[in-house]
Amino acid sequence: MNKVKEIILSYATYLNPSEDQKIIAEKRLTICFDCEHWVQSPIRDYCDVCGCTTGVKVFSPKGTEACPKSKWLE
After folding, report:
1. Among 8, 46, 59, 64, whose Cα sits 20 to 30 Å from the Cα of 33?
2. pLDDT digits 0-9 by tens, 8-51
3. CA triple 38-72-74, angle to 5 deg
4. CB under 8 Å to 21, separation ≥6 — which residues?
5. How far apart are CA 2 and CA 23, in angstroms?
């Protein structure tokens, strides 16, 4: 899946997630919060490895492989 398509699909899901998608996103975000690569800034929270905004990245359709450090498990 190319990066642009992944970003568009992530934002689409972020705007209207199912209950299952919300649960998965919450689990992924918890992992991100504890990750040494997660950066919290006044503008946005993001992964300093891939540069993605974590609040949206957690809705990626790529599944567990969307995390560049392979930390997301399902």
Report:
1. 8
2. 999 999 999 999 999 999 999 999 999 999 999 999 999 999 99
3. 150
4. 13, 59
5. 25
